[in-house]
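Q: A reviewer asked whether we had any structural model of the full assembly, not just the individual parts. We don't, so I'm hoping you can provide one. Inputs are below.
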Amino acid sequence: MSNATQDPHSAFLAAAGHALWQPADHVRRAQMSDIFSRPVPLEIDFGCGDGSFILAMAERFPDRNFLGTERMLGRVEKVSRAIARRGLTNCRVIRLESNYVAKWLLPVACAATVHVGFPDPWPKRHHHARRLFQDDFMVSLHQVLAPGAEVRIKTDDQPYFLWIEKVIARAKGFERIEWPEEPDYPKTDFEQHFVAQGLPIYRARLRKI
Ligand SMILES: C[S@@+](CC[C@H](N)C(=O)[O-])C[C@H]1O[C@@H](n2cnc3c(N)ncnc32)[C@H](O)[C@@H]1O
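A: Here is a predicted structure for the entire assembly that you could use as a starting point for your response.
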């Protein structure tokens, strides 16, 4: 198909190239070399949104690989275009549900750090089952983390944070550790919006034991 007749999504796929990770097989566990050719530590951003966090991290730490998961197509397209435009070879994004990626696709013990920034709070009680933090997700996280690797979680939503703390407390194989304020840790537009309003940000840092 020529460019003139290509539909917008095909054009995006052609342009996104390396930025978008499209597994050859969605039911087989990938090998690290299927995702990044350079064997350096991997950091994962589950629910990377518009990519502002993962893009900043990938630019700051060229000696690490970064993988974002995101289920919304428009956001995946935005992140992919930004990765391509900035010429980042250490950053990729996959359009798939985070727990599926962690549980079924990623190599076991592949991640040095996992970031989860402002996961959707699903405030209505009958939507709580849609929250990312569930007992099963903690098992998937444990599987994907290398020994001693870390998880960093931030949210502005206090009820969801209390929920997350209970899920964490039940999970086996993690210890909660201090997370001193790191001025260099990138803040997404989302976080800056809450900080500008003087709202608290709730944070948890875990280590796999
Ligand atoms: C509130 S936004 C936060 C985005 C970003 N982490 C930040 O800090 O700005 C949550 C993002 O996670 C995505 N998301 C929510 N649940 C997801 C899931 N189960 N798998 C993949 N993406 C998910 C949403 O589409 C949305 O872009």
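A: Points you may want to mention in the reply: DSSP finds eight helices and seven strands in the chain. The CA atoms of residues 129 and 182 lie 32 Å apart.
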